[in-house]
Amino acid sequence: xxxxxxxxxxxxxxxxxxxxxxxxxxxxxxxxxxxxxxxxxxxxxxxxxxxxxxxxxxxxxxxxxxxxxxxxxxxxxxxxxxxxxxxxxxxxxxxxxxxxxxxxxxxxxxxxxxxxxxxxxxxxxxxxxxxxxxxxxxxxxxxxxxxxxxxxxxxxxxxxxxxxxxxxxxxxxxxxxxxxxxxxxxxxxxxxxx
Length: 194
Fold this sequence. Notes:
The protein is of the alpha/beta class and 194 residues long. The protein has one domain: Rossmann fold. The protein is built from eight helices and eight strands. The strands form three sheets. Strands 5-6-8-7 form a four-stranded mixed sheet, with helices on both faces. Strands 1-4 form a two-stranded parallel sheet. Helix 1 packs parallel to helix 6 (155-165) and helix 6 (155-165) packs antiparallel against helix 7. The chain is globular, with a radius of gyration of 16 Å. The protein starts with 8 loop residues before the first helix and ends with a helix. Keywords: Hydrolase, Protease. InterPro entries: Class_I_gatase-like (IPR029062), DJ-1/PfpI (IPR002818), Prot/Nucl_acid_deglycase (IPR050325). One of its GO terms (biological process) is proteolysis. Residues 4-164 form the DJ-1/PfpI domain.
């Protein structure tokens, strides 16, 4: 999980909880935070995080997933080092999950030019100067091989798409997950916990 100033903690909250606890998948993952330096950063919600490792120490082959949350700094052209890390992960065949502003950073880096993707809106990404408009899909979350993207209004669908891509839950359980956490459907709960 990449952490940087103003990272949007709510966008990745569902995903991080499911990966770390394994409460619905039966498989616990170790979540490691990655910063550009070892200095603490503060999320958009005011949570202070000290990165576990620094960017220079990260090798894609040593991980199973790179998660990139939105941040105002993506829109200002920042976080180029994390976009390059994403490129390295994808080149190594390791999944990258980007939501909201992180998609604009990947667009700016040309990573979305040849992959199906989504974001807040096609027009939002056009400000990045990217050339992938014909690959834009107007869905809550999109999986294209090792790339998972979502818009800011879709943290549950983002979590679902990542869990699906990683093969951590059945389609029925993923439907139930979205039913409980997005639609507040009480009928989905027994399937989710069963």
